[in-house]
Amino acid sequence: MKNLLYKEFKLCMTAPMLIFYAFVCMLLIPSYPYTVAAFFICNGLYFTFSQAAADNDLLFTTLLPVSKADAVKGKLWFVVIMQGLFLLLCVPMILLGNRIHPDGNPAGADCSLTLLGGMLILFAIFNAIFLPRYFRESHKSGKHFLIALIGVFLWVTVFEGILIASSAAGQYIPFFGWIRDNLDAFPKTPGAWTAQGILLAVCALLYAGANLLAYQKAARNFNSVDL
Fold it and tell me: SS3 breakdown of the chain: % helix, strand, coil, rounded to 5?
């Protein structure tokens, strides 16, 4: 696996993948749906996978002394590392954004642990849709990306919409009020820290489960492909 990851970073990494990390600074924009920032990492992954398809990377990998399942696993670990790095970069931006905008974000999720959880689910949806389709028909990566984006932006709409609704209706509906006070803000009380910590842990488990399912389905699809 170490050698496969080395191959991914050495031969498949593209400049757009690295450039899109700068979009973490979007977490400092006032009144902006911050979950969208994670989309640009998916965009960078799309460029990387498209270039790999153009370079016949999957054919090259199968000529190495590795199984098709290992080739899928190498790609998946590359994706997880890229997404995990973005989330790590989000942490200082969340702390800084909370200081710059202490009154929160009226356009959706505030800079908080809840935002990280929302991004994890966004990545989970993208991986679960894009990767299995890519390993079935890598030359149609653009089509697979567009289909994955439907799922991604449906999630952004639902996630950000719930948090916007919690701010608007929190004083009238107790459930939305609880979300507003405990989830849709940088945690400042023990109860908020606990609620957001549990939410982030659940999102991390869902992310791990989605990646496992994506791997299993992608491996089956790739095994059925005659290169």
Answer: 80, 0, 20
Query: Do the beta carbons of residue 196 and residue 181 sit within 8 Å?
Result: no
CA distances (Å), origin 169, targets 104, 115, 141, 176: 16, 20, 41, 6
Is the pLDDT reported for residue 220 higher than 70? yes
Global confidence as pTM: 0.94
Cβ atoms < 10 Å from Cβ of 123:
27
Query: How far lies 183's CA from each of 25, 114, 198, 205, 214, in Å?
Result: 22, 6, 10, 18, 29
Compute CA distances 135 → 7, 43, 50, 87, 202, whole Å. Answer: 17, 18, 12, 26, 28
| Phi, psi for residue 226 in degrees, rounded to 5 | -95, 105
Q: How many angstroms separate the CA atoms of 70 and 64, rounded?
A: 11
pLDDT tens profile 156-188? 999 998 888 887 776 778 878 888 888 888 888
The string of pLDDT tens digits covering residues 45-84 is 999 999 988 888 888 888 888 888 888 999 999 999 999 9
Query: What does DSSP assign to residue 187?
Result: -
In whole angstroms, what separates CA 103 from the centre of its chain?
26
With tokens 């098709």, the residue in question is: 68
Spatial separation of the C-alpha atoms in residues 36 and 41, rounded to whole Å: 10
